[in-house]
Amino acid sequence: MSTGRLSVRVGSIAPSATLAITAKAKELKAQGKPVIGFGAGEPDFPTPDYIVEAAVAACRDPKNHKYTPAGGLAELKVAIAEKTRRDSGLQVEPAQVVVTNGGKHAVYNAIAAVVDSGDEVLIPTPFWTTYPEPVKLAGGVPVTVETSILSGFKASVADLEAARTPRTKALIFVSPSNPSGAVYDRDEIVAIGEWAAENDIWVLTDEIYEHLVYDDNKFFSMPALVPEIAERCIVLNGVAKTYAMTGWRVGWVVAPIDVAKALTSLQSHQTSNVNNVAQIAALAAVSGDLSAVHEMREHFDRRRLAMHAKLDGIVGVECLKPQGAFYAFPNFEGVMGQQIGGQKIETTLDLAAVALDQANVAFVPGEAFGSPGYARFSYALGDDDLGEGLDRIVNLING
Asked: Cis before residue 15, ω within 30 degrees of 0?
């Protein structure tokens, strides 16, 4: 019997570094400090008007004031299935869709559905800070697969095979990637999907940034390219990034029928249904055209290029041009050991602390993503703040 005040599993959870950095930046702003935050992973645009209007109308409809099915509104599940076919070419049935309270809930439930105690889950670095925590909560073992700027932050089949053991149960696959901005090409995705199928490994593929790709890069959904993986593949997605709806908290899982049923049962005891008004808003989002999305992507693309040029121009800093999402992930190893702001910098944790204290700039150090020496900078913020914040970083490092 545990004698601790908290359970061992809950007590071992690391808080979200990205949310912590964002909260700290907001706290300092409230104190009157001119903080510019590169930490938040959310678009700076308002949710499109047609989505908001759908929610307003839903508020006035008494049927939305009551409980609805735990797995999601029937009409939303139909729309998500159609949206999935439209955007990725993957044919799924509405019964395979489970609507969740945001993307994190989708990740948590998907892992809970397939991971048992002692199971190993492969997670390529750099990884979104949330991925390892639900694995540990399920009693599983997160196994990191190291990538770097030299590999374009992409794991190869050889990398994954080297990490595979008889206990390997699942792989978390992300393209476009948070935090690196890497996008896997068709051949790379096919190779990984075929490897997973051959080894009976579950793939949890996070497609939340599917519409945010740039230049000649393209998004591909693994189960659409590798049909043989479909019965061991769970697709994670949501409206947060594509439609600037982070606060609405609507995500979803697309899974084999038996998994979808199990997830619905789990959710029926966790949360019951997702907020009905938010579901109606999500219905308007996924059923509408992508014009608002394309407009936001144009802004992100311009900021991406500006951020890359500024960061990659700092002596001792190397930054790959992001291919997708809205993050840059520069390598600061070349400035480690230097005196910056009157302090010797040994880690990106040190650099982040000095930047916040002396330059009023907040960013997330790479340690949070399993990649010390790097840092994540979001370019989902206004052009003026982006330019001013990057200038402060340049001046801080250059002295």
From this structure: no
